[in-house]
Amino acid sequence: MASTRTVPPIKKVVLAYSGGLDTSVILKWLQDEYQCEVVTFTADIGQGEEVEPARAKALKMGIKPENIYIDDLREEFVRDFVFPMFRANALYEGEYLLGTSIARPLIGKRLIDIAKKTRADAISHGATGKGNDQVRFELTAYALMPGVKVIAPWREWDLLSRDKLLAYADKHGIPVDFKKRKGGGAPYSMDANLLHISYEGGVLEDPNYAPDDKMWRLTLSPEKAPGKPQIVELTYERGDIVAIDGKRLSPAQVLTLLNAIGGRHGIGRLDKVENRYVGMKSRGCYETPGGTIMLAGHRAIESITLDREVQALKDDLMPRYARMIYNGYWFAPERVLLQGLIDASQASVNGKVRLKLYKGTIMCVGRESATDSLFDPMISTFDDDGGAYDQADAAGFIKLNALRLRIAANAKARRAAKPRAPAKAASKAANKPGGKPVSKTAAKAVSTKPAPAKRGKSAAEPH
Known about the structure:
Blueprint lengths: L11 E5 L4 H14 L2 E8 L7 H9 L7 E5 L1 H14 L16 H15 L3 E3 L8 H12 L4 E3 L10 H10 L6 H4 L7 E4 L4 E4 L29 E8 L2 E5 L2 E2 L2 H14 L4 E7 L5 E7 L1 H17 L2 H20 L5 H13 L5 E8 L2 E8 L8 H4 L12 H25 L5 H9 L8 H7 L17
Parallel strand pairs: 1-2, 1-4, 2-3, 4-5
Antiparallel strand pairs: 6-7, 7-12, 8-9, 8-13, 9-10, 11-12, 13-14
Helix pairs in contact: 1-6, 3-8, 4-5, 8-9, 10-11
């Protein structure tokens, strides 16, 4: 594809490379259009696919072995991104657990790390010009390397259909998966990582279309889930899960195991129409079994370890925090500031939670903290508390809190008791300079006497 436009001089670019059709075409396009050296970066964040084939494909396309980066980021992903987000109980628009959103800043960060290491002057990604990912990648890049150049092929080229991508691949000898060539595969796009799988596009673009149950890959349908519930015990330290059923695990191991447990019990499906940052509405289907369990457990342990007002403040700030992540502001100063507040609140979030999982549902059946519980049974009991709580004190508490209500009620009563001005007086007042005009109907109601005739003419004559 010959280009007639002028492109800025780029010597070396780091490409976020999956090895799929889109990014393989981008790789060749960068080589041809920008005449630059390409470095590929493939991240393993638990997407469940082999990443080594990306190395072989990059080599076939002329990438030097030293310019191929494949990194296992699963532990870093959960430890430094997923866990901090779950300390905030973050939900976008009240439902979405931000599985795609939270992965982008890590990928963007690693792109910049490699760009600095290889002295590249640009990065490139395969996000389209309609989606949120372009914003997330690029805000991350500019926050970490302000002078970096970003190449977003989907905003530049004319290969805007699958057929055009395949034709370009054929022309340039780019290997293509047989299913993609024959139009096989899923009738929607998927994006996976250790936290979730998302399904979008294709048949799902109709928000009234009900997806087939075969679409879901991580979870059984609740109807097919076991008929016997499972109790799972989560151990928390400073707001993070460190053990499941008494066995200590790494962050990535925690999420991997919870995905398996939750998926088996039909937990974590979501079908949502959301508001993209770029302005349009988009329908997405999500599977987040482990994350759904993590959210329920974290709220349960916070219920006995956080002060009421701290908990309320966190709940007030959570929607804004979630929007920051959804919109791509992970490395923005406001998110970093808010994270510090959230993390400070987690110093006391230590203990154990027991959750019952059954056919798509989660119920907390126990929570305890040997060191930080604010639940005082002597005060909370309905039985004799031995004087720990003087119930007579409640009268003064209630009266003080009712003071503004009583004042408002008295004022309302005074307004109701105040006599209203007579209608005639009100009419005169309205006709005085500066008074409010009255309608013809109102004026007629005040007086029905005919107006006196003018001198020399009968009242019936026209004036």
